[in-house]
Amino acid sequence: MTQRIAVVTGANKGIGFEICRQLATQSVNVVLTARNRLRGERAAAALQSEGLNVIFRPLDVTDHDECEALANYMERTHGRCDILINNAGILIEKWAASVLDAKADTFRSTLETNFFGALWMAQALIPLMRQHRYGRIVNLSSGLGQLDAMGDGTPAYRVSKTALNALTCMLADATRTSGILVNSMCPGWVRTDMGGASAARSVKKGAETAIWLATLSATSSNDGPTGGFFRDRKRIPW
Ligand code: NAP
Predict the structure, then answer these.
(1) DSSP state, residue 77
(2) 74-95: per-residue pLDDT in tens?
(3) CATH of the domain at 27
(4) Residue 1: pLDDT band with limits 50, 70, 90
(5) Cα of 177 to ligand 1 centre, how many Å?
(6) Which of 65, 136, 182, 190 would bridge 206 by S-S if both were Cys, CB 3.0 to 4.6 A apart?
(7) Which domain does 140 fall in, by range?
(8) Helix/strand/coil (H, E, C) string of 103-126?
(9) Could you tell me if the CB of 110 is within 6 A of ligand 1?
(10) What atom of ligand 1 comes closest to residue 14's alpha carbon?
(11) Do residues 129 and 75 touch, judged by C-beta distance below 8 A?
(12) How many domains does the chain have?
């Protein structure tokens, strides 16, 4: 049985932190990454104190060079990367922000993290996954990115998640038959700094579907879905 190793982005708090905990609890080695060294080291230390196999590496996903450096570290130190969780995300608009007042800079900053960050990480790590004919990529998307239910409010965030979903489909197609499964998921409305204190779900519940997708059918890459969008382990419309 191969010891799996995962990279989780934006994992110093919130859903990403909980994903690290749940993966490590399932005996996956976890590389917890964060853009702030101190916050990342503290988060990793908290999970290590629970007896979990988690190490910290610094990573700002908007920095292309840092994404490539992280992939080089994975190859050099661990020789593989089995799981990539593109969790890092920002929402810098007010909930009521309208597309009628939207500013280009808000779109650019949001896309830098929520879209380009995931693209750089996938491009950096898929070659290593291909070498081992195994990979699970989970993109933390949102129901707010669904074209099926598109409306006004947080326009830059919505566009970034729609774009992330398109990336999921493209990556799934580009990696078909190489043992790599790529999927989007929506965690629901979760109590984090982003979701706020009134959100309906715990981080534990919010992380569950990401864990399921990250650990799909360890024996055969053809057993699991790829190129899908899921919430609560069920497919949802794009
Ligand atoms: P959160 O508590 O705000 O955490 C976001 C994480 O992303 C933080 O660790 C943050 O780091 C990190 N991050 C932001 N920009 C980054 C960058 N450039 N490089 C590396 N890390 C960066 O948010 P969350 O609720 O856990 O959300 C996690 C994911 O789920 C996001 O993609 C979000 O869009 C998605 N989601 C959340 C909800 C919800 O209700 N909470 C619903 C749907 C989807 P810092 O601490 O340094 O800022």
Answers:
(1) I
(2) 999 999 999 999 999 999 999 9
(3) 3.40.50.720
(4) low
(5) 31
(6) 190
(7) 5-235
(8) CHHHHHHHHHHHHHHHHHHHHHHH
(9) no
(10) 26
(11) no
(12) 1
